[in-house]
Amino acid sequence: GQQLNQSPQSMFIQEGEDVSMNCTSSSIFNTWLWYKQDPGEGPVLLIALYKAGELTSNGRLTAQFGITRKDSFLNISASIPSDVGIYFCAGPPVNYGGSQGNLIFGKGTKLSVKP
Amino acid sequence: NAGVTQTPKFQVLKTGQSMTLQCAQDMNHNSMYWYRQDPGMGLRLIYYSASEGTTDKGEVPNGYNVSRLNKREFSLRLESAAPSQTSVYFCASSEAFGTDNQPQHFGDGTRLSIL
Question: A48 at the B interface (CB within 8 A)?
């Protein structure tokens, strides 16, 4: 089936550091979504991207829709402790074998605080 | 301002028992979804309802049934629970289906254990 590959799988952050993560696929997407999940809660939408090359910010978060339409990037600047959690990318791939409009999700990037 | 509400939050079942997970949204969204999330995995779509009166299978529908009771409510039923169905179940909704502008909004999940 379709897959979204997120990298890195996990990372440790120190307060104040910038964080980068990405999501790649062999399929073309028309929409990229970035979600954050805190323990015991459902995913919360952070940023939605709708156009190749688009760069969108939400506070300290910035996400980009890759030019090839097969990847997306999320950056967090000046991280703070509450940034800890799992970040998922998701999107409806074009020419998906299932119904158009259904989302597929990456396996997530887990952000933890450096001990 | 509840968004997507799921009940129950936790449930323990014995193998072979049946139960229904409830989901309701107050955002007047047309489309609703059921996902399962297993450790280290992204979310996988079980069933979805693109609009009131329609339901369709997602990626992992076996062992489940759904009912779109009305525009607000979408339930997931396990007829004969199996240990492999131990998971966290998330309900989501979106304004529309099959368009680019369809970010999904999630409930906080139902944690289900099958013994």
Answer: yes
